[in-house]
Write a structure and sequence with these properties.
InterPro entries: AAA+_ATPase, ABC_transporter-like_ATP-bd, FeS-cluster_ATPase_SufC, P-loop_NTPase. Keywords: ATP-binding, Nucleotide-binding. This is Fe-S cluster assembly ATP-binding protein. This protein has a single domain, classed as Rossmann fold (3-Layer(aba) Sandwich), CATH 3.40.50. 40% of the residues lie in helices and 29% in strands. A hairpin with a 2-residue loop joins β4 and β5. The radius of gyration is 18 Å and the shape is globular.
């Protein structure tokens, strides 16, 4: 079953009208992991921002269906409640809000929207500690304000913890390997791999093959100049690592 269907998606920067996405078509079925690769400026991050509902981008054509519903008509919070999760390249800092408080508010908001009661505090604490241990997240990190003073690796681990708690049906990871050393990359990848399931789909946006050594995709797409110009299996990522994107940049023009 198609969880995510992107049809002829065109999007531009709202402020100056620069067109970035020029007809993206993509279907992601439940249980699949898709990797989207491409050179800088190809539109990879723009695609993730449009999926998240970031206001700086304007969709001029096309549609995005998630579980058959048009998400372009939903606010970012409605998309999250529907089961979409976006892990950003640069997670934002929220001074004054403890990580634990943020996690509890996010989980309970999602439960409420789905008609479930709030999780009692002892159950919530147990759940978070269990998952945090697997992510090498210390109790001290959970007490600190969200992402404030966190290293790049700590921010990414914190995001994957959020993802594990919320159990979304669609996970979009935007260059989540950016700035990670090999140990942090392994912890983050293990967290992502624990979430792989027949009911869940993942879209992994990355510049490098090294992430795909840890999170092995089913399907790899090359995005260039705002559209997908090539689709293949995991071997396509290896080919790109070896030969670069030069072959595909011309195709998109």
């Amino acid at each position: 079953m198609a969880l995510l269907e992107i049809k002829n998606l065109h999007a531009r920067i709202a402020e100056d009208g620069t067109e970035i996405l020029r007809g993206v078509d993509l279907t992601v079925n439940a249980g699949e992991v898709h990797a989207i690769m491409g050179p800088n400026g190809s539109g990879k991050s723009t695609l993730s921002y449009v999926l998240a509902g970031k206001e700086d981008y304007e969709v001029t054509e096309g549609e995005v269906l998630f579980n058959g519903e048009n998400i372009l008509e939903m606010g970012p919070d409605e998309r999250a409640v529907a089961g979409m999760f976006l892990a950003f390249q640069y997670p934002i800092e929220i001074p004054g809000v403890a990580t634990m408080t943020f996690l509890k508010a996010a989980l309970n908001a999602q439960r409420k929207a789905r008609g479930l009661g709030e999780l009692p505090t002892p159950d919530f604490m147990k759940l978070v500690r269990e998952k945090a241990n697997k992510m090498n997240i210390t109790p001290d990190m959970l007490k600190r304000p969200l992402n404030v003073g966190f290293s790049g690796g700590e921010k990414k681990r914190s995001e994957i913890l959020q993802m594990e708690l919320l159990e979304p049906t669609l996970c979009v990871l935007d260059e989540t390997d950016s700035g990670l050393d090999i140990d942090a990359l392994k912890v983050v990848s293990d967290g992502v791999n624990r979430l792989r399931s027949p009911e869940r789909a993942m879209v992994v946006i990355t510049h490098y093959q090294r992430l795909l050594d840890h999170i092995v995709p089913d399907i790899v797409h090359v995005l260039s100049a705002g559209r997908i110009v090539k689709t293949g299996g995991p071997e396509l990522a290896l080919e790109l690592e070896k030969n670069g994107y030069a072959d595909y940049i011309g195709e998109a023009a």
